[in-house]
Specification:
- With 560 residues, the chain is an alpha/beta fold.
- It has 2 domains: 317 residues, Methylmalonyl-CoA mutase (TIM Barrel); 114 residues, 3-Layer(aba) Sandwich (Rossmann fold).
- It is built from 20 helices and 15 strands.
- Helix 2 packs parallel to helix 3, helix 8 packs across helix 13 and helix 10 packs across helix 13.
- The protein is globular.
């Protein structure tokens, strides 16, 4: 007889030996992730509403879009195989040098847009213009009092572009130009989780659609004027589902306006700036690989990989080359993007897409009830929400529930950085920032002696844990089976088994205090021994799940 879900659950609960089944339920971005999914959510077929599986019925390889630097960097990107270039508003020389090539162009536009902005890229294969006054408002680059006028200007600009495209005077089909950008990247950097990102995209989209229809564009033409730029982080399956859910909620938004046969195909995925680390920056190569993977399988049209040294400032030539080649290898050798919606049909991915879409729609409705995206930015309520989301994420990182490789896990206390540490931006976050700040403050400020109890077979596990623990603060360790006189500011950490702790930990702590150690740590949970160990001189206990940031800060006294 075929086993049922109830049979599976009964066996699992037996294996859990009395522990609650909910122990197997994890959470990502505040949403519950079940240990097993058995029912498929019907997301339709590719190219058909609600377009979860893609706006087109056939797969097309994604296009590599590199951020432009100077003219030399743009030339390297062109020679290195990029399909599109993303220009800042100030990159005029690099833009002029690139326009003779068969490229798609993404172009940031600061301030009031003009038709000349579009004429500058009229011969590009595709032009997505980064006109985004709501993004400027969020970044503090636009006064709230100026926003109504800017939205009117944006609407008029988009109408003129649409008219000239439709008339053929600018030489390309209408669907090849997008006038307004809806970007979640800055909100993601400020702490937004996946549902917040999608809610912000929807709320911004509503504001822009209203601005465009006020200028006389119909709903379908207004929708075709928009494109979405979205950050992709390191939760591979979660980010893949985020892009699938984006298409679903976007279709639902347009359907509410009566446009039911238009899917979202203009998606520009950008590797998350929040996930980049400055400690052991080579790990960023792995992060970018998984982020590009998620973006492509999620159905992004354009994908911008990050350079491994981007968090330090202007990327090096090596950083740009490895970023390009990462995406090219995934496309040309792994053939990513040649299968349309590779995750479609997976019970887990379909259910997670549906759950995320519902949560994002609920949060979008809450923003609209409170007056819309502009009101949420002006009142500060949106920033408070994103800071709360970041605080929850930072707490998980601090206890290493969400590890940051090379920073909070497998840190190298003797590494040499390729450049000076960057300042932390006021309006954005990075996953490793708290550990990086801790390490900058306490690195090499203490001598740490790992004092072992018993044979190596007993203490080796906790010794390894302690070495990795102190390495996150840049503190090198040395092992000793004996109590030696303390050097100035030395920390002693006792490592052994629970059985040894019961009889030997308190006496050894007393010896260490007598030898001049002002900070004594024990590796492991103290349990019933906590009171006696503290009385003997143990100051802190380190164990899986403890707050690494708070513990090392307390041990080092905020050392500089």
């Amino acid at each position: 007889m075929k086993p049922t879900y109830d049979d599976w659950r009964a066996q699992v609960e037996k294996e859990l030996a009395g522990a609650p089944f909910e122990k197997l339920v994890t959470r990502a971005d505040g949403l519950a992730i079940q240990p097993l999914y058995t029912e498929r959510v019907d997301s339709g077929v590719p190219g058909v509403a609600p377009f979860v599986r893609g706006a087109a019925a056939t797969a097309a390889p994604f296009e590599l879009c590199m951020r432009s630097g100077d003219s030399d960097a743009a030339a390297d990107d062109l020679a290195g195989g990029t399909d599109a270039l993303w220009f800042a508003a100030s990159d005029r020389d690099a833009l002029a040098a690139a326009l003779g090539h068969d490229l798609a162009i993404v172009m940031d536009i600061a301030g009031t847009p003009k038709i000349e902005h579009f004429k500058a890229v009229m011969n590009a294969r595709r032009a997505w213009l980064g006109v985004d006054p709501i993004g400027e408002l969020w970044a503090g680059e636009l006064e709230a009092s100026a926003l109504p006028r800017e939205l009117n200007e944006v609407g008029a600009f988009a109408r003129r572009v649409a008219e000239q495209r439709t008339s053929g005077r600018l030489g390309a089909p209408d669907h090849q130009v997008r006038s307004l950008r809806i970007s979640s990247v800055a909100f993601h950097a400020a702490g937004a989780d996946a549902a917040d990102e999608l809610a912000v995209i929807l709320a911004t989209g509503v504001a822009y659609l209203r601005a465009l229809t006020r200028e006389g564009l119909d709903d379908a033409a207004a929708a075709r004027s928009l494109w979405v730029q979205i950050a992709v982080g390191r939760d591979t399956f979660g980010e893949l589902c985020k892009l699938r859910a984006l298409r679903l909620v976007w279709w639902k938004l347009l359907a509410a306006a009566g446009v039911t046969e238009l899917g979202l195909d203009a998606i520009h995925a950008v590797c998350s700036p929040r996930t980049l680390s400055v400690r052991d920056p080579w790990v960023n190569l792995l992060r970018v690989t998984t982020e590009v993977f998620a973006a492509v399988l999620g159905g992004a049209r354009l994908v911008t990989p990050a350079a491994f040294d981007e968090a330090f400032g202007t990327p090096s030539a090596l950083g740009r080359r490895t970023a390009r080649n990462t995406a090219l290898v995934l496309r040309e050798e792994s053939h990513l993007g040649r299968v349309l919606d590779a995750g479609g049909g997976s019970y887990y991915l379909e259910a997670r897409t549906e759950t995320l879409a519902r949560e994002a729609w609920s949060r979008f409705q809450a923003i609209e009830r409170d007056g819309g995206i502009v009101a949420a930015i002006k009142s500060g309520s949106l920033r408070q929400r994103l800071e709360a989301a970041w605080t929850a994420r930072a707490a998980a990182i601090a206890v290493r529930k969400e590890p940051v490789l090379g920073t909070s896990e497998f840190a190298n206390p003797s590494e040499k950085l390729p450049a000076a540490l960057p300042a932390i931006a006021d309006r954005s976050h990075r996953d490793g920032e708290a550990f990086e700040a801790l390490r900058a403050r306490v690195e090499r400020s203490r001598d740490v002696v790992l004092v072992t109890l018993g044979p190596a077979a007993e203490y080796r596990g906790r010794l390894g844990y302690a070495e990795a623990f102190f390495a996150t603060g840049g503190l090198a360790t040395r092992e000793s089976a004996e109590v030696t006189p303390a050097s100035p500011n030395a920390i002693a950490c006792i490592c052994g088994s629970d059985e040894r702790y019961a009889t030997e930990a308190a006496p050894r702590a007393t010896e260490l205090r007598a030898a001049g150690y002002t900070q004594i740590v024990l590796a492991g949970r103290p349990g019933a021994l906590e009171k006696s160990l503290k009385a003997a001189g143990v100051d802190q206990f380190i164990f899986v799940g403890c707050d690494v940031i708070a513990t090392l800060t307390a041990l080092t006294g905020g050392a500089t």
